[in-house]
Specification:
About 45% of the residues lie in helices and about 20% in strands. The protein is an alpha/beta fold. It has a single domain, classed as Rossmann fold, CATH 3.40.50.850.
Length: about 180
């Protein structure tokens, strides 16, 4: 695997299907929502694009209110019915913004997150999964999904580690902006 580094100008955050009717059934739902929120907050202060998908909104509801509150005016919310969030609309946004690296979070780890990551890698994107910002209904499904992602070349990371990698150094305004989010 190539030396993968997440840089500010070429990175986006993709939040997959953290929706009102699905989240309550997720193992460690509170932690998942909190960590996805931290990732969105960090992306916002750094100016990293945030793309949010919603799986079959009519049946599963909208993105949770706690995350909607964190989205900036530039965040894009897209509905989908495919399990993978690597849709034509998402790829178009990534292309328009010159994105080469995608940090993925969301639910469910073994279905939509896994298929999204596999498709992103298949399309040539350097892809990380924020393992502390994903979830499944059953813990084993999540564990096996992360193992499979790693075997497929997806980089396992945490919210804090990817945010600080994007920042790059401590003696900057970017670091000062991210510091309250990671504390």
């Amino acid at each position: 695997m190539a030396n993968v580094r997440f840089q500010l100008e070429h990175t986006a955050v993709l939040v997959v299907d953290v929706q009102e009717k699905l989240l309550p059934h997720i193992h460690n739902a509170g932690q998942v929502q909190q960590q996805v929120g931290r990732l969105i907050d960090g992306a916002n202060v750094l100016g990293v694009p945030v793309i949010v998908t919603e799986q079959y909104r009519k049946g599963l509801g909208a993105t949770t209110a706690g995350l909607v509150e964190k989205m900036s005016k530039t965040s894009r919310v897209l509905e989908k019915t495919r399990f993978s969030a690597c849709t034509d609309d998402v790829r178009k946004i990534l292309c328009e913004k010159g994105i080469r690296c995608v940090i993925v979070s969301g639910i469910e780890a073994h279905v939509c997150v896994l298929q999204t990551c596999l498709d992103l890698v298949g399309c040539g994107y350097l892809t990380a999964v924020a393992v502390d910002a994903i979830g499944s209904r059953r813990e084993l499904d999540q564990t096996v999904a992360v193992d499979r992602m790693v075997q497929a070349g997806i980089v396992p990371a945490t919210v804090e580690s990817v945010l600080l990698e994007i920042v790059g150094e401590a003696a900057t305004d970017r670091f000062k902006a991210v510091l309250p989010i990671i504390k």
